Amino acid sequence: MSTAAPRRPASVPEWRQILSVTRLEMTSYLRSWGGLLFVLLMPTALLLIALGVWYPTEARQITVPDMAVMSVLASGLFSIGVAVTEQRKDGTLKTYLSSPLRARTYLAGQVLDRVVVTFTGNIVMLLVAWLAFDITSTGSLLLYLVMATLSLATMLSFGFLLASRFKTIETAGALSSVIFFAVMIGSGFFMDPSRFPGWLKTVVDVLPFKPIVDGMRATWSDPDLAGVGVDMLIVSTWFVVFLVGAARLFRWTPDDR
Q1: C-beta of residue 74 within 8 angstroms of C-beta of residue 180
Q2: Which parts of 58-102 fold into alpha helices (H)?
Q3: How far apart are CA 254 and CA 166, in angstroms?
Q4: Band of the pLDDT at 256, cuts 50, 70, 90?
Q5: Could you read off the pLDDT of 191-217 as tens digits, one per residue?
Q6: Between 63-74 and 103-133, two packed helices, what is the crossing angle to 10 degrees?
Q7: Which whole-number Å values give the CA distances from 71 to 7, 55, 257, in the listed order?
Q8: Measured between alpha carbons, how far is 208 from 67 in angstroms, rounded to an integer?
Q9: Which one, of 68, 50, 245, 81, lies nearest residue 179 by Cα?
Q10: Which of 27, 75, 99, 155 is most solvent-facing, going by the fewest CB within 10 Å?
Q11: Burial zone of 149 (CB within 10 Å; 0-12 exposed, 13-18 middle, 19+ buried)
């Protein structure tokens, strides 16, 4: 039996509740400057490592979308699971039970908060790539930013869907790591998906992870923007699926069913 208290009718419009949750979450960064700097500088750090170690000079153009993909996937799978599980375990989430706040409102505010911060970190990376290495988009920068925002929101929603049922921080950390590497492989980031068996290739094509990689790379470096519309449609559909699923399965306390 669920321990959640009955919700009172909300007197504040839901969009304002979402903004309130977002603002509340953002104030936490003021108490942890180290965590904020890590989020803001992680994409740039990945870029510098990629340019110095992983990518040869002739492949430097795709370092920006590839490192953005890594930061997007990591934000969705690592920052969410542990944080939400810890808040559920220490009773922070339980304080919302007496409010009219719905699960979907809380999740939307959390997603918006992390989209803003991680997106800002990626903008910093773009500026460093341009000013220090003269790496610029040869596709459509506007569509790239739209694709990056959509991909980030989708991965964060996926992270919340997973976190909705994590019971311990250890479980959240371990499973998030396993899923991260599975997603990296399935997205085609580490290997060409055309080498997968036929049925597995079909599954990979319809999941959002490969379209995220393909869409980010295409909007950044392909002037023809080949396949971008399909990639955006697939990712958008999964964003809705993940967010609705997370809202339905979300638990405020460890004892919720």
Answers
A1: yes
A2: 63-74, 80-89
A3: 9
A4: low
A5: 777 778 878 888 888 999 999 999 999
A6: 150
A7: 36, 17, 32
A8: 17
A9: 81
A10: 27
A11: middle
- State the pLDDT at residue 65: 94
Contacts made by residues 35-40, CB under 8 angstroms, sequence distance 24+: 36/117, 39/75, 39/79, 39/117, 39/118, 39/121, 40/117, 40/120, 40/121, 40/124
Report, in angstroms and rounded to the nearest whole number, the Rg of the chain calculated over CA atoms: 19
Residue in 111, 152, 150 with CA at minimum distance from that of residue 243: 111
User: To which residue do tokens 């399965």 refer?
Assistant: 249
Length of the chain in residues, anyone?
257
Query: Nearest to residue 189, comparing CAs of 98, 74, 96?
Result: 74
Q: Please, is 31 exposed, middle or buried when counting C-beta atoms within 10 Å of its C-beta (0-12, 13-18, 19+)?
A: exposed
